[in-house]
Fold this sequence. Notes:
By secondary structure, this protein is α/β, with parallel strands linked by helices. The protein is built from 27 helices and 32 strands. Helix 6 crosses helix 7, helix 9 (260-270) packs across helix 10 (294-304) and helix 18 packs across helix 27 (868-878).
Amino acid sequence: xxxxxxxxxxxxxxxxxxxxxxxxxxxxxxxxxxxxxxxxxxxxxxxxxxxxxxxxxxxxxxxxxxxxxxxxxxxxxxxxxxxxxxxxxxxxxxxxxxxxxxxxxxxxxxxxxxxxxxxxxxxxxxxxxxxxxxxxxxxxxxxxxxxxxxxxxxxxxxxxxxxxxxxxxxxxxxxxxxxxxxxxxxxxxxxxxxxxxxxxxxxxxxxxxxxxxxxxxxxxxxxxxxxxxxxxxxxxxxxxxxxxxxxxxxxxxxxxxxxxxxxxxxxxxxxxxxxxxxxxxxxxxxxxxxxxxxxxxxxxxxxxxxxxxxxxxxxxxxxxxxxxxxxxxxxxxxxxxxxxxxxxxxxxxxxxxxxxxxxxxxxxxxxxxxxxxxxxxxxxxxxxxxxxxxxxxxxxxxxxxxxxxxxxxxxxxxxxxxxxxxxxxxxxxxxxxxxxxxxxxxxxxxxxxxxxxxxxxxxxxxxxxxxxxxxxxxxxxxxxxxxxxxxxxxxxxxxxxxxxxxxxxxxxxxxxxxxxxxxxxxxxxxxxxxxxxxxxxxxxxxxxxxxxxxxxxxxxxxxxxxxxxxxxxxxxxxxxxxxxxxxxxxxxxxxxxxxxxxxxxxxxxxxxxxxxxxxxxxxxxxxxxxxxxxxxxxxxxxxxxxxxxxxxxxxxxxxxxxxxxxxxxxxxxxxxxxxxxxxxxxxxxxxxxxxxxxxxxxxxxxxxxxxxxxxxxxxxxxxxxxxxxxxxxxxxxxxxxxxxxxxxxxxxxxxxxxxxxxxxxxxxxxxxxxxxxxxxxxxxxxxxxxxxxxxxxxxxxxxxxxxxxxxxxxxxxxxxxxxxxxxxxxxxxxxxxxxxxxxxxxxxxxxxxxxxxxxxxxxxxxxxxxxxxxxxxxxxxxxxxxx
Length: 883
């Protein structure tokens, strides 16, 4: 560490001087932030703090939602004072507890935000620093600090000391009171230098920031490390929803680091992609926080074609040991070889053990903090002569590799989220019916561990598991609420009277399954509706959980579900039922039986064909036909996120969703959706759009609106097939229509099949040479499988799907064929409306004859896996604020 880089602020300033135009932070929907702009942001924050009396020792809490703006606020504050990241999911009570322990002098919030953090600050008299976002597509903010006339401007020098905290983190630990971890500038520079040396990081590297920035790992590894090494921190638009094209193709990270839960999600949603190995720029992947299941590690390596290495770290010592990508040292099942002088394994007597023996891990070196804040007794037991007692049990083999064997403490590690059982105990004891309570860990297929709890009720009082879980919702963060709470007559205790949580866990594991064994049992008198609903829910759960068969009484979370899968599941259930479903329903309905009963009691199962996203936005809405009756239009979420909360997106479902009939013509489809659109937006000007055939429907709706005297501003068509605009195609299908009286229904089937083959040909003609070659090889593979009698391989990323290989007779029974039949009868007519055609695999062909005011933009990906982050960037240039 040079004299000019004694603090994180000096290190970033040095980078800004060496590479001012190099990108420091990037995120979809925003202009990339350069190191010069980052330094300007840091200088503005420093000037505002100093002018209002906040010196380098001032503790400033950061209460922003997770994302790039929160990361920038944390970094800018850490360069000038002491930054305290707050978890935005904490309840009012939890934040007030944090304030009491940390004593911040101010908190940074977004201007106009209404959050638990603001309420806590107002109730506790903590000064509020408001950040005003800059232009909608610009990372950064303006700083507004109410002037306190009793505080004078802070004196110089204003650069923090190297051993002063850059930021203070909180961890639950084993007690109800959180541990306060002051991570110094010297600690952070050493930690970043260690990761840089391990993985040969350069300014050309880009780290995907998918871990929460208010946690130790997300902040130290994925935010500060790339910035201190001159690289780029890349933030997805929504870190809770994996999007391959946005995360890997658009952001182009060269590495990312996360816990097992996220790795499993990436693996599950990537393994079926043919472009998985070629659609990214990754060099390596890091995993930490909890052991990564071997099948996920091996599967992710095979799917993405890059090394996946596990590392070991702690909030108190940052990254301690790591396996290295080839040709570095690595051994599966271990945490790599620790740097010399950083690890000692000791027995119960405190003396080092021999190679291969298990003992407690002691950690030393420049990344270890000097001690917890305000915890003299805890420091006495946790730190000894520069060594930190981790509480983890490990061993070092004869090759020097570190292996973890568990934890001495009973902290519950829920997919990397560290949860204190005592905190849950205290919250449960606040219920008037609870006399005793004990939270404990239970095995979980995806998270490693989850939270359960046992309670003893007061004599004469009752309380159900659902009631107790509801009670906890306002008292602890949602991820801490036990998935199951059981009532016991007594809790297992030792001689000293302390609850033995391990025995609770063991009894849970050994208990016989209580799930029902049949799914045919009626739920209500309305058996037809219920049976249909139950079958739909079973199909969704079995696909997402990758478990079959399931019963109506299987618990979603006990069968391997987690919060990320729950989000996907609820979105698909909304599409299935047409109801808007609050996520809080999973606090009381975690089985299919419970969920079906709740849905039935809430007013019937009526399909919803138009969903409003960003509904409170002030701009003119974009009415968007998503065009996917199989995938529920998930890409609309990406569009809504990147377009921003001020741009309403009214998403219209295609016909054929659920049990809805598919009209026989494109015009009939448009006419059927027109009343829904007029109800959502009675007057124009209208902005319409859609993907694939959704774009064609949007075009026909535009025609009907114009015929009705309404103003249509634009139609956005995202890669629709346009062969119907060609005169030769129109002539062919006209002749086939005239043959109907002679041949009857078979002509309709042939027309649909022919139109579909024509679309394939149009797509093939518009392919690049590389795409053509790949499509030919895939088709040969499918034909070879058919000749051999093998099951046809499933292809999900190209035009060569199984359905397209069907003969005419079987093809006629598919939903795709019904759309093809409607398109074979469709003759588009010229319309004087502005059309923006965003092409991927298809070309505009002769569509210029239909739309005289036609603009063309190119997007990335394939037709089935369009880069919607790129599409959204195109749209932002056209969707101007309503005047």
